[in-house]
């Protein structure tokens, strides 16, 4: 299968990622469905934890949750690790609850990898990784955080995901 790349255009610069449909077919299909409908355009990176993750894709620039599709089955048992620069799906404590939000690991976060079949131990499904833009990831991850109602790890200064575009 040919490689699938996505360009993430942000207010801090561009990041290029390769996706892994062989390892996470349902997760990649879910992510690309959101990409193709423009769901991620003009959304926020709403959660920044320095030395851990930057998370986005679910909220528009007014901090309003975007409409979502049905959750996708968790594919964290695919052998891919939550290493620095990898993309993974965010979820609630229930293992099969990922929808539109994703995060980029800003460090090696192997504690987020699949450990067992319980909801807590199932892990977070890695489905791609950055091939360019590590400087942009670092710039976003070092933003000053200022808690907002319901968003304790929100950046003080808006960090926008202008668009996500795919290409082969």
TrEMBL record:
The keyword Ribonucleoprotein does not apply. It comes from the Bacteria. One of its GO terms (biological process) is protein folding. GO terms for molecular function: peptidyl-prolyl cis-trans isomerase activity. PPIases accelerate the folding of proteins. It catalyzes the cis-trans isomerization of proline imidic peptide bonds in oligopeptides. PROSITE patterns: CSA_PPIASE_1 (PS00170), CSA_PPIASE_2 (PS50072). Its EC number is 5.2.1.8. Pfam families: Pro_isomerase (PF00160). It comes from Desulfohalobium retbaense (strain ATCC 49708 / DSM 5692 / JCM 16813 / HR100). Keywords: Isomerase, Rotamase. This is Peptidyl-prolyl cis-trans isomerase. It catalyses: [protein]-peptidylproline (omega=180) = [protein]-peptidylproline (omega=0). InterPro entries: Cyclophilin-like_dom_sf, Cyclophilin-type_PPIase, Cyclophilin-type_PPIase_CS, Cyclophilin-type_PPIase_dom, E_coli_cyclophilin_A-like. Residues 13-166 form the PPIase cyclophilin-type domain. Belongs to the cyclophilin-type PPIase family.
């Amino acid at each position: 299968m040919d490689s699938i790349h996505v360009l993430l255009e942000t207010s801090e610069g561009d990041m290029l990622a390769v996706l892994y449909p062989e390892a996470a077919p349902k997760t990649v299909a879910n992510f690309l469905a959101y990409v193709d409908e423009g769901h991620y355009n003009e959304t926020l990176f709403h959660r920044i934890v320095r030395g851990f993750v930057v998370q986005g894709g679910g909220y528009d620039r007014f901090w309003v949750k975007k409409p979502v599709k049905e959750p996708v089955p968790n594919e964290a048992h695919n052998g891919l690790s939550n290493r620095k620069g990898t993309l993974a799906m965010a979820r609630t404590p229930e293992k099969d609850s990922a929808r539109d939000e994703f995060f980029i690991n800003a460090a090696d976060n192997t504690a987020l990898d699949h450990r067992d079949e319980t909801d807590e131990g199932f892990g977070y499904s890695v489905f791609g990784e950055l091939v360019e833009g590590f400087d942009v990831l670092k710039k976003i991850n070092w933003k000053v955080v200022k808690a907002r109602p319901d968003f304790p790890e929100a950046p003080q200064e808006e960090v926008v995901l202008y668009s996500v575009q795919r290409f082969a």
